[in-house]
Amino acid sequence: QAKLQGRNRHSYFTSDMQVAAQNRLQLTNELRVAIEEKQFSLVYQPIVELSTGFIHKAEALIRWQHPKRGAISPIEFIPIAEITGLIVEIGDWVFYEACNQVKCWRNILAHNFQISINKSPVQFTHKRQGFKEWFDFLRELDLPGESIVIEITEGLVLNADASIKNLLMKYSEANIGISLDDFGTGYSSLTYLKKYDIDYIKIDRSFISNISSGSEDLTLCETMIEMAHKLGIKVIAEGIETEEQLELLISAGCDYGQGYWFSKPLAPKEFENYFMKRNKNFIDSTH
Ligand code: C2E
Ligand code: MG
Ligand code: MG
Ligand code: MG
């Protein structure tokens, strides 16, 4: 009896793992098709300058419209793309697409428009880091480096080897911005902040969601903002959902805000409409 149970449990366990492995294998194959069949698109979430309300930045976020399964979240497929290395090809596509968009928006929206793109650590450690290809593409479009910000994670800078350090330095030399995503969630060591030319930190949504007057999370946000400013780094708050959160962050001196309170990520045409509506009170004097 016990033996039978054991065997059943065992086979149940294996079949669970088989299902997971099959799912992953299927997603992997489908990701390959998705690249070829152009099932990806980018949406753009406004990043608002809190002192003025002006918008001249956005974060590009990938979307996958699967022909049968519908929309699949990047939270689901980016990890698989990372494991299989497909993230390199997908990441190149994201970069080229975002460059074309920022080229257009610098012409029709704001001359200093800037788009942030997420770059996975796997793209940095892959043998083809792709700096030359990306840089050539910027030149081809006649785009200055400051049109682009690369969002990286704390883990990358913490474990950076010489080749990653070198690549980050090349970005800085090319005036491509560097932003630390999900800041505050990973590590307590902050020495890397002065070792690299970091332009922005993005305070993680988990801090923003619980800030209220007098809360510990507000104290943490204030401290991160003060520290960043002393190091000459600008601060972006992620995931602002309420007016109260926004007011507290403005009082704390936060530079930029992003979140559903302003807007969810938008398709390009929707973004242009949102931009026109929000920015109509501003005369872009430098235009
Ligand atoms: P992330 O870079 O931290 O992006 C912010 C995520 O928070 C986005 O989710 C965005 O839609 C969501 N968000 C923004 N405002 C709010 C808010 O007020 N409340 C809540 N609850 N969520 C908000 P999304 O688009 O699902 O992307 C998830 C993650 O997938 C990203 O986190 C990023 O790590 C990754 N990702 C997305 N696009 C790319 C890409 O092109 N390349 C790479 N390597 N990773 C990407
Ligand atoms: Mg990001
Ligand atoms: Mg810089
Ligand atoms: Mg983030």
From TrEMBL:
Where in this chain does the record put each EAL domain?
24-279
Q: What is this protein called?
A: Diguanylate cyclase/phosphodiesterase with PAS/PAC sensor(S)
* Originating species: Methylotenera versatilis (strain 301)
